[in-house]
Specification:
This protein has 307 residues and is an alpha+beta fold. 43% of the residues lie in helices and 18% in strands. Helix 1 packs across helix 4, helix 4 crosses helix 9 and helix 5 runs parallel beside helix 8. The longest helix is centred in the N-terminal third of the chain and has 23 residues.
């Protein structure tokens, strides 16, 4: 690591650590056995490998504030890149934190009243039966066979098990899943390569929405969770059937914008960058070259090897 990079890491880590100390004094708690400093070190190791679409290092392209905010959201949620629970993506000159399938499960288990969460894919040849009981969706039966996994996907569902034994069912059809993918900033290359696992990730995020926003857990934790979820989607491209949900999404999006008050880092410690036009790194992947598609796949696949 160059001296400039080492100094930049120290400055940002010091700022994030200082902010964490303030938040801890106001009631922020971390998961058992979670070490924020170790997570920050792991994150910087990953950031040194993270590049934008033009192969520029993230630490040279992204603003200091965006790096600090992404790292703070990571630590508040108790996530670690070393456990493939999260990864970083560059959008223009802004660094964003994204959760993996495992990360979202880990975060939801931190919420009060949540015992477990899992998702299953419904294949074309499966027998899937659900019902509406007292206004709530309930799983009646899902029968599948091993060989069905080679067939097409009909849908996906997620179950959140509460500590009191109650279960929350969320079901999405194939069309609903694809509609959600169409709103993603990362395009659909990875979704098409690994449809089963990406479908599970999508339905878990959908199921998590009601649990998260009705939780009485720390506002800091809820805000960090929502920030990470929002960073994956283009607000202008959200297309929901329910008009009320459109309004609520816009409220959620605008309400969860937070700019941390980090002191300005001395210029001599900032890695030199040139002025760049802000452009999404992951626009419609199908418009990119094979090399660009391959780089996107390698980046995400490395973070979620179990695909």
């Amino acid at each position: 690591m160059s001296n400039e990079m080492a100094l930049l890491q120290k400055d940002i880590t010091d700022h994030v650590s200082g902010k964490l100390s303030e938040l801890e004094s106001t009631g922020l708690n971390f998961p058992p056995n979670y070490n924020p400093q170790n997570a920050l070190k792991s994150a910087f190791f990953k950031l040194q490998e993270t590049k934008d679409r033009k192969d520029n290092p993230a630490l040279s392209v992204c603003t200091t504030d965006s790096i600090a905010n992404a790292l703070l959201d990571m630590v508040v949620q108790g996530l670690s890149p070393a456990k493939t629970q999260c990864y970083f993506i560059v959008y223009g000159n802004t660094l964003k934190l994204n959760r993996s399938y495992f990360g979202t499960q880990a975060v939801l288990k931190r919420l009060k009243g949540v015992k477990d969460i899992w998702a299953n894919v419904i294949y074309d040849a499966d027998e899937f039966v659900m019902a509406i009981e007292k206004g709530k969706e309930v799983l009646i039966k899902h029968e599948t066979k091993f060989e069905n996994r080679d067939g097409g996907i009909k849908g996906v569902y997620c179950i959140i098990e509460k500590e009191d034994g109650a279960q929350e069912l969320t079901v999405m059809t194939k069309k609903e899943v694809e509609a959600a993918w169409s709103q993603s900033k990362t395009g659909q290359s990875v979704h098409k390569k690994f449809p089963q696992e990406m479908a599970k990730r999508t339905v878990i995020n959908r199921a998590a929405k009601n649990i998260i926003n009705t939780s009485d857990d720390s506002d800091l934790l809820i805000e960090a969770i929502n920030n990470t979820t929002d960073s994956e989607f283009e607000p202008s491209e959200r297309k929901h059937v329910d008009e009320a949900e459109i309004v609520q999404d816009e409220v959620d999006q605008n309400a969860n914008q937070r700019v941390l008050d980090f002191d300005t880092i001395p210029e001599e410690r900032v890695v030199p960058t040139k002025v760049r036009e802000v452009e999404p790194i992951y626009e419609e992947v199908s418009k990119g070259t094979d090399e660009e598609q391959g780089r996107l796949f390698d980046s995400l696949a490395e973070m979620e090897p179990n695909f």
